[in-house]
Each structure stands twice: as structure tokens, then as C-alpha cells.
Design brief:
InterPro entries: GcrA. By secondary structure, the chain is an all-alpha fold. Among the domains are: 38 residues; 48 residues, no CATH class. Helices cover 27% and strands 2% of the residues. The protein has a two-stranded antiparallel sheet with strand order 1-2. It binds a DNA duplex (11 and 10 nucleotides) through helix 3.
DNA sequence: CCCTGATTCGC
DNA sequence: GCGAATCAGG
């Protein structure tokens, strides 16, 4: 298959419409998903959110060349501090001034001073008192009252009300707050009431009177 | 493993 | 220009 003008137009339309490359390839037929993507790029069509390039900085950070050698700031290339005279005192001075400001706290850092835990029966590890959360206070007892349906849906036939004896004709659209079903007595043997059966089932017109359906945009879905 | 789009590269 | 192969995230 080649990229005729007509097929390119369809590709553009479907791509712009937001269809996935697979769907477009399926729709056009005779081409692979890769072919569609490749062609779309060559046409300069707007790129769509790629799972791979979702966030530029993260991808960049991950792809950052190891050989680029972003030196860790902690490890300064500067020469190691020379050991000076008076061996006893300098070590203290080497510490940052900030450390001197709050010496007691920094000394008991968790890493240098692991907390001691005792093992309970069965081998579980006991928490220290400081790790324990305050218990969640029990909710005060309340009387449970059935939820009141919103005014919109009150007296309407919901999905749960459906059965064989009532009309299942949808009123409105799913997701809308007042979406419900007709709920009138169903025409026996049919899922809808008489009125909606008249809408759902149209009498078959004589063959010669039928007009061919108008062409769908972009040729419509491919029939397989 | 399935999906997705991007990119590469031999044709 | 084309698209399979490959990559890489969801």
C-alpha cells in the first residue's frame, strides 16, 4: 500500500481526531502502526503525549551521560585536608561551625545511634514509645440512616429498578445526574413499553424504496 | 505481556 | 520516503 493523497488526508484527519496509531493503521488498512507513526512524523503532524517522553527533565536526568561525570558536590576534588599539628584538637575544629552550635542533637543522629528494640513473643519487633501513634479515637456512636436519594433521581427508575416488566428505555444520558429509565410497563416480550417499542423497532420498508445510506466522513469504518 | 508514541536506520 | 526494529514508559 502506498500513501495516496486520499490516504494521507484520512491519516491527518484521524490523527488529529486523537485516534491511536494502531487504530488508524487498522482503519486505513494495509499499513502497520509503525508506518502510521512514521508517516505522521514525516508529515509534521503534531506529536501526541508519548508515554516515553512524558516529562522532559526526568527523561533527561535518566539519560544523562554517565561519562559526563556530574561530580557529586559532596566529594570535592580539592585535596584532602592535611593533617596539621596538634592532633588532638583539630578534629573538633574540622566539624562545621553549625555542628558546634547544636552539638548534643547532632551527636544522637539515628544513623550513628541505632535505636535499640526488643523482640516480642513470636518475633515481632517492638516499637519504641516515640514511634507509636496516638490511638485513633473511636467514632462516637451514631444512628445509621438510609441515604436519601437526590431530588433529581427521586421517583425515577434507576438501573437497580430494572426488571422484565418495566420499560428499559434510557432517558437522558449515562453519567448525567438525572439519568434514568422509562419505567413504564413493558410491552410483554419486549424490553420497552409500547411507545418506546415504536421508536426502537421500525417497520421494514420495501426494498425498492430504500435509499442507499449517505457516505460517512472519511469513508466510514472499514468493513471486514 | 499488553498497550502507547518516538527514534533509528537500512532499504 | 518508507517502515520494521527497537526503545522505553504506562
Amino acid at each position: 500500500m502506498s500513501w495516496t493523497d486520499e490516504r494521507i488526508d484520512r491519516l491527518k484527519a484521524l490523527w488529529t481526531k486523537g485516534m491511536t496509531a494502531s487504530q488508524i493503521a487498522d482503519e486505513l488498512g494495509g499499513v502497520s502502526r509503525n508506518a502510521v507513526i512514521g508517516k505522521a512524523h514525516r508529515l509534521g503532524l503534531q506529536s501526541r503525549p508519548s508515554p516515553v517522553k512524558a516529562n522532559e527533565p526526568a527523561a533527561k536526568a535518566k539519560k544523562a551521560k554517565p561519562e559526563a561525570a556530574p561530580k557529586p558536590a559532596a566529594e570535592t576534588p580539592a585535596p584532602k585536608p592535611r593533617v596539621e599539628a596538634a592532633p588532638s584538637a583539630p578534629t573538633q575544629r574540622a566539624e562545621a561551625p553549625a555542628a558546634a552550635a547544636a552539638p548534643a542533637r547532632s551527636q544522637v543522629a539515628p544513623e550513628s545511634q541505632p535505636i535499640i528494640r526488643s523482640i516480642g513473643p513470636g518475633g515481632f519487633i517492638r516499637q519504641t514509645p516515640s514511634e507509636q501513634q496516638a490511638p485513633i479515637p473511636p467514632a462516637p456512636p451514631r444512628r445509621l440512616v438510609p441515604a436519601k436519594p437526590s431530588a433529581e433521581v427521586a421517583d425515577k427508575t434507576s438501573l437497580l429498578d430494572l426488571n422484565e416488566k418495566i420499560c428499559k428505555w434510557p432517558m437522558g444520558h449515562p453519567g448525567e445526574p438525572d439519568f434514568h429509565f422509562c419505567g413504564n410497563p413493558a410491552n410483554p416480550g419486549f424490553p420497552y413499553c409500547v411507545e418506546h417499542c415504536g421508536v426502537a423497532y421500525q417497520a421494514q420498508m420495501p426494498r425498492r424504496d430504500r435509499r442507499p445510506p449517505p457516505p460517512l466522513p472519511f469513508g466510514g469504518p472499514r468493513i471486514r
